[in-house]
Amino acid sequence: MKKSLGLIEYKSIAKGIEATDEMLKAANVELILSTPICPGKYISLIGGDVGAVKTAVRVGRDIGSIFTVDDFVIPNVHPQVFPALTATADISKIISLGVIETMSAVASVMAGDIAVKAANIELLEIRLARGLGGKGFVVITGEISSVKSAVQACENQLMETGQIVSAVVIAAPHKDLIPKVL
C-alpha cells in the first residue's frame, strides 16, 4: 500500500519526461501517472514510502530546474486519493456534490486529500488539467453538511496560496448531471 504521494508539475514536456526517468532511478517508487497536460505542461505522480517519495521528488525538482512549476509530497495520503486520480471511485449514490476548482494539477491533488481527511465524504474524482487550461478540479459527495465542511477545509488551507479558483456545494444534484460531470 502506498503511504505517500509525490507530485511534480513542469512547464516543459521534454524536461518532465527526463526528470521523471531520473526520479524512478533515484528511489524505489511507483509511477502512478506521467503525462502531458494543458497548456503544454507535464505532470508526474509517484507513490511509495515517505522517504523514497521525498528523495524522488527532490531529484525531479533538481532535474526540472527552472522548468519545475510546482511540487508537493503528501506524507500520509488518504487511500481514496488513488482511485479518484483514475476516476474509478463508485458513483452509485450521490447525495450532494462538492466541486473544488484549482489553479494547478498539484493543487487539485492536495485539495482532494484535504477534503477527504476533513470530513466524512467520498472522493469521486480528481481531474488533472487535461482540457482545462492547466487547472484541475475535485468532485466529492456525501451528506450536505460533510461536503460543506470538506469544501470549507480546502478553502481555508488553499485560499491564501491563490490555488483555489472557485468551490461550490450542490444539494441533491439532478440525476442527469452526474454522468456528464464524472
Overview in brief:
The protein is α+β, with helices and mostly antiparallel strands and about 180 residues long. The protein has six helices and eight strands, in the order βαββαβαβαββαβα. Helix 1 runs antiparallel to helix 2 (about 50-65) and helix 4 (about 105-120) crosses helix 5.
Question: How much helicity do the residues have?
Answer: 25-40%
How much of the sequence lies in strands comes to: 25-35%
CATH class of the largest domain: Alpha Beta
Q: Give the overall shape.
A: globular
Overall residue-averaged pLDDT value: 89
What is the CATH fold-level name of the largest domain?
A: Alpha-Beta Plaits
Q: Tally of extended strands? A: 8
Q: Give me the strand/helix succession.
A: EHEEHEHEHEEHEH
Derived from helix and strand composition plus strand pairing, the structural class reads: alpha+beta
Poorly predicted runs are none
Q: Could you state the CATH homologous superfamily of the largest domain?
A: BMC (bacterial microcompartment) domain
Overall number of domains: 2
Structure annotation, total helices: 6
| Radius of gyration of CA atoms, rounded to a whole number | 16 Å
Describe the largest sheet: 4 strands, antiparallel
The span between the termini is: 26 Å
Main β-sheet, spatial strand arrangement: 2-3-1-4
CATH architecture of the largest domain: 2-Layer Sandwich
Main location: other
Domain BMC: 4-86, 96-182
Pfam families: BMC
InterPro entries: BMC_dom, BMC_shell, CcmK-like_sf, CcmK/CsoS1_BMC, Micro_shell_prot_PduT
